[in-house]
Amino acid sequence: AQSVTQLGSHVSVSEGALVLLRCNYSSSVPPYLFWYVQYPNQGLQLLLKYTTGATLVKGINGFEAEFKKSETSFHLTKPSAHMSDAAEYFCAVSVRSNYQLIWGAGTKLIIKP
Amino acid sequence: EAGVTQFPSHSVIEKGQTVTLRCDPISGHDNLYWYRRVMGKEIKFLLHFVKESKQDESGMPNNRFLAERTGGTYSTLKVQPAELEDSGVYFCASSQSSRELNEQFFGPGTRLTVL
Question: Average pLDDT in the A6-23 region?
Answer without folding.
Answer: 96
